[in-house]
Amino acid sequence: MSPRRTVLLAGLAGLLLLAGGGVLGLVLPGALQESRDYEAAPRCAAGRAAPECRWEGPVAVTDREYRSGKPGSHHLQLSRGGRAPQWVKMNEGGFGGGDVYDAVGPGDTVTAVYWRGLVREVAFRDMRQKTGDHPSTAYRLPFGGGLTLASAGLGCAVAARHARRTAGRPRIRNDWRVTIPLVSGVFYGMAGFAVSLQLTDSMASALVACAAAGAVVLAGALSLAFVQRRLERPPSPVVPVRPRVPYGEVVVPGKVLGDVPYALPGHTHLVAAPGMLASVPGAGPVRRGTYPKPLPGPRAYLPPTLAPLRVRFPRPDDPAGGPAKPHLIECRDGAREVLLAVDRQATDQVLGALASRAPAPPVP
Fold it and tell me: What is the Cα gyration radius of the chain?
């Protein structure tokens, strides 16, 4: 991952963690306090309704409807004492619309519990059902939203930490140490949000359900990481490649890495030919796999003192640069170590160009 993307990912992680912590630390306590206030509120005196007490009395059901959506919702239209009717969303009581919603229809009289101007519960005979404004479920949105933001932020932070630790190293075949924490954090946040909104009816049940969801996501992430680790190539295996001298000039993605004068920035391709190997500035392909010949820009010819030693796969501590799926050709130029990061499909031709050059003159 490029340094710019690493910084952006770390910044996104900080914003998400800050937002999630703010929701969980500032908004959620207010919702929980509202639930405690409702439970502690006294019943209103007979015939006298007040916002801070719970008024319970008869209301008429004038209509009912199911509103489609994801998910759908059930609503009762209630009229109290000849006042204008109001629609009340009913919480689901297990299946369907809940006990009261299933049992009543237009013309029936139910008992409604009002608190702070809103209908909180509806009772009919020996059945009782909470409404969407009941304070006991006010935790759902702040808890689910805060958990989603914090979980996604934590996943981004872990991914950014690994990306920062590997900054300046060549890209590897499958950087699962970045993708697995990132995807797991986002997925757990979405799962926790859905579970807290749809499958819980108290803060305790939400914590238990989200802990169970977290255990499932963690087990899946660890299993996937274990499989990816097993599939990972050894740190530095020697790759057997037989040199093949190219028939003419061949342009391939490749880069010279090392503290040598011919390791030039911006030179992202190699020109291989019988007896010659040079690096050139990059250019876009004319079509898939076809590059213009010769590539524009100056050539940096690799000296005959450059001797190949072996071919291997990238290691985490290798310098950055080169194609996305490279072989690294370890070389020596006197006492200096040089790496050629070459596209795997062209390693044999680059080795052939190196082997076909005239040997370096002996040092007097």
Answer: 34
Report residue 184 as tokens: 């797991």
Residues 6+ away with beta carbon under 8 Å from 64: 74, 75, 76, 77, 101, 104, 105, 106
Residues present in the chain in total: 364
Q: Please report the beta strands in the chain, taking only residues with DSSP state E, as ranges in sequence order.
A: 55-67, 73-79, 86-90, 109-115, 118-124, 127-130, 250-257, 267-273, 276-281, 300-301, 306-312, 326-333, 336-343
Position 51 scores a pLDDT of: 72
pLDDT in tens, 274-327: 989 999 887 554 444 454 555 567 888 999 889 999 999 887 667 878 888 889
- pLDDT per residue as tens digits for the range 204-229: 889 999 999 999 999 999 999 888 77
Q: CB within 8 A of 186, min separation 6: which ones?
A: 151, 152, 155
Quick one: tokens of 163?
């990306």
CB burial of residue 240 (10 Å; 0-12, 13-18, 19+): exposed
The pTM assigned to this predicted structure is 0.60
- Rounded Cα distance between 123 and 129, Å, is 6
CA separation for the pair 254, 354 (Å, rounded)? 14
First and final CA of the chain: distance in angstroms? 47
Q: DSSP letter at 346? A: G
Q: ∠ at Cα 269 (263, 270), nearest 5°? A: 80
Map tokens 């590539």 to a residue.
295
Residue 165: count of CB within 10 angstroms of its CB: 12
- Give the span between the Cα atoms of 351 and 259, in whole angstroms: 21
